[in-house]
Amino acid sequence: MASETRPFLKMNGLGNDFVVWDARVDPLRLSPEVVARLGDRETGIGFDQMITVERSSFGVDAFMRIHNQNGGEVSACGNATRCIGRLLMEEAGKDLVTIETAAGLLHAFDAEGPRTVTVDMGKPRFEWDQIPLAEEFADTRAIELQIGPIDDPVLHTPAAVSMGNPHAIFWVDDVEGYELERFGPLLEQHPIFPEGANISLAHIFDEDQIRVKVWERGVGLTLACGTAACAVGVAAARDGKTGRKTTIHLPGGPIGIEWRESDEHVLMTGLTEVEFEGEVDFETLTWRKTGAGDASTEAEAAS
């Protein structure tokens, strides 16, 4: 790639953080190796996902391309969809936008409260070959999978759901009682998941209140994962553990999930944040901050 400097935004949804490029006028495609170098938290900018906003082939507001921290491209990211939805709504002065993704068309709209965005994530998928799983299961509410001894497994029989990407949810009594940083990589790449999977530990601690810890495919432990929150809320309601409206408590904060009965769509509502503006020199992959984000704007408004 020729020497080029490009601006970016650093954003997050409940701590699930992104570098965002606007490539609608000037296209941008980076190799997995470059994405991984930029995503490194020690030597690069550091992020969970890299988001490239492109022109939509369907003529909707934008296409959102998603790369995980390891450079691999994925189909869905709920928190990123909320962040990009916010940017597109602010830019166009609208309260509803449609975003094309590899997982389909998603709608984002203003919710109550500043910087709060709701995304319609569409319908969850439960069929084994749509998640996908490597073998057939008639009921994906509890698939045959375990970690540990056969007669005394550490984790076992997770629910499996697709929210445009595969998820496995283990119901536990304490999400901090397991070494997810050790089990996560093993479960993510288990042969039962031909495309890998996002792994969640979930504990229902009050009526319709669920605490969740996530090992995100291609990322690792994360402060928040929007599609995991959706998958957990749906799996809990599907199994009769909760109602269709839940609050998912992630390390980065709470997110509201509603599995709408009228059309089976999943609505996800939560905060978004612009952390800072920056630019990258692609010849050296060095970067610098060029502007402040939401926190600075709020501080100025309060002074």
From TrEMBL:
Cellular location(s): Cytoplasm
Known EC number: 5.1.1.7
Catalytic residues of the enzyme: 77, 225
Reactions mediated catalytically: (2S,6S)-2,6-diaminopimelate = meso-2,6-diaminopimelate
Subunit structure and binding partners: Homodimer.
Family: Belongs to the diaminopimelate epimerase family.
Protein name as it appears in the record: Diaminopimelate epimerase
Species classification: Bacteria, Pseudomonadati, Pseudomonadota, Alphaproteobacteria, Hyphomicrobiales
